[in-house]
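Worked example 3. Consider a protein that binds zinc ion.
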Amino acid sequence: MMSCMAHNKRSKAAEAGQLCRTVQTHQMVKGHRLQEEKHETADMENERTPLVTTIRVERTDPRYRSFPHSTFRRFCTIALCCILILAIIGFAIPYAVLQPHRRHHHGHSHGQIDGLHASGWPQSEGLAFDDLKEILLSTPDEEQARTWSQYYTSGPHLAGKNLSQALWTRDVWQAAGVKSDIVAYDVYINYPAGHRLALLQKKKDGHKIKFECSLEEDVIDDDPTTSLQTRIPTFHGYSASGNVTASYVYVNFGTYQDYEDLRARNISLEGKIALAKYGRNFRGLKVKRAQELGMVGVVMYSDPQEDGEMTELNGYKPYPEGPARNPSAVQRGSTQFLSMLPGDPTTPGYPSKPGVPRTDGNLSLPCIPSLPISYRDALPLLKALNGHGPKADSFNKYWQGGGLSHKGIDYNIGPTPSDLVLNLVNEQDYEITPLWNVIGIINGTIADEVIVLGNHRDAWIAGGAGDPNSGSAALNEVIRSFGVALSRGWKPLRTIVFASWDGEEYGLVGSTEWVEEYVPWLSASTIAYLNVDVGARGSHFQAAASPLLNDLIYNVTSLVPSPNTTVPGQTVYDTWFSKDIRTMGSGSDFTAFQDFAGIASLDIGFGAGPKDAVYHYHSNYDSFRWMDTQGDKTWEYHTTITKIWALLAAKLSEMPVLPVSAETYAKGLEKYIKSVKVGASQSSVTDDFSFVALEKAANNLTSHAADFDVYTKSLTAELGEGVPWWKFWQKLKLWYAVRKANMKYKLLERQFLYADGLDGRDWFKHVVFAPGRWTGYAGATFPGLVEGFEDNDLKKVKKWEGIVLKCLENATKLLSN
Ligand SMILES: [Zn+2]
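Given these inputs, the predicted complex is written out as structure tokens:
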């Protein structure tokens, strides 16, 4: 992609150079003539005097003899020429964009953009918007999506070990007519070398093994992914190597508060191993807090408590016979400290190009070992805790509800007596290795307005039918659909970029390094980033977004038929249960776009509802067979997410006035300030702080944003009415007004970046959106303020009040004139 951009730049520069050279030549010719004239008058006769001399004859025509206004006339001629040139530049170029539809293939025409007559801005060369929409809704095909999924899930594709898939993806996109290339980075990454977890009874003459964890997922006969010779061991990405033997403590979910609760009850943690349940916060942060408290290792397991109704206890059979969790399922995953720094841990804020200087990575890498296990392996460890220390149900509500009570587990905290210990061995090979993003581009007419769509390709397991390859199959179908439009002569108004990221699972590595490399260009040009990670693993539509894009999500989901209708004709919007759009946290590839570059982003997919089969996240059972028999049997959720994704891109690319809402954005900020206020009531400094200035500034932004949206609607209406060609001046004015308005929408999100970043994690530049310090996935809004209150630090609160006020003011200014 960058090669064609560079090419564009080059050719423009070349044109400019040519222009300069032409001007120079003119001046040189003029200079030469002057010199000649001088020679004629000043030189005396010599041996080089020509034999035939030109004798200058004065004009005698009275009309020319004494023309007093010759200077004035020359001035007029030059002025007229200049006006003509300016008119050509100012009118003809915009006209090239404004020109009427050229329908190469269609007799019939709609000339409408969603009911809007758009003769004033028929941008989609070759296709009307309705024709494009029709292609995007009718091209995605269930059988084809199934085929893409089958390819991606047929073998392991860990980060940095999937070059053949990268090349294959590039070729698929090229075949669809989308210019594509591989963009590689050299990243610091680990691969599993060995592991062991055993419960030991200390005896006088050494240790007796009480239980040896299998650390393996069961092979299932009719699920070929589970028996591959090359299947990937259970391990944690970016985990520390180590061999520790110690007694252990049940730490619930290992959230910050869970550890605090244990300290409040004087449970000894130092020198112990933590046994934690998966869920509630990002796994790396379970390790981070354990490490800070002097613990020496962490073991994590998946408790059926997190599986809702679909449990064996409720009578459901486990996979493959039924929808419940297979007891041997293990959740792999990264233990990077995601809320501190995503991407390559050794190149914070800059791309991991070959040979770049590297840090030690300690800001985001754990130093104590950890292992993931199944609940079947966890049972003997939990059982060994019975009778030791207080019971979890004597703690607060967050400690209730363990899902293995029926298996004889009392959920005692421990610690285990000093003669009952765990031996935890984790061996990881760390290396610097290339990984490969695939980047495709469809160049639009307007070069500096860009939409980026992305999904990651790497997975923890050979399968990954849900995460991420339901998204990868959808992305290929999006590209195939746009390819059909291209083959019918379509050229988008704005540029569309597609990305198949590598290394997401380890810590959003491929996308982060790419954004870090291209941030100047992305910042100048990008309107929005549209992410799909898990495209389909159930029937419940889910979305997270910058509020700038909320209205667009509601609009587009109401155009796409739902695969799950009780009444014929229902759309995804109709069957979308909560209609709730979450705030942007982290945990997928939108993070660098939203939190580092200030680009409005969204993340969508179909997740599991209460009646859907348990999704075996990061386990061998997230396989093609599971998807084909339980996750998305008809593959309709794959094609539905494809349609939503493609239409989001098409609307952002084709609507003359960007289909975003500044007012919804500002109202979102008002809501977030309210929630900061609610949270602040717990803080000891809350009485010393007034929210009035923040509320006033946000309110002021909302009213300016509302006015701005009304104004841009009027521009859309004006475009809809159409301007006759002979009123070219008015047309030109309208074109510039639309360009300016879109520029403001584009830069609105950028106003909320703070160059120095958040306290203690300065890679995060957005003052509104960041992952919570201790949640990782879930978004913390206005993190600077929130953390100031959490830390009871009034100085910090005041600092962030000043920063946020400045951002609100800048945003208001941007939308004002
Ligand atoms: Zn994923």
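Take a moment to read the result before moving on. The pocket of zinc ion is lined by residues 456, 467-468, 504, 533-534 (CB under 6 Å). Residues 1-45, 49-55, 62-66, 99-122 have pLDDT under 50 and may be disordered.
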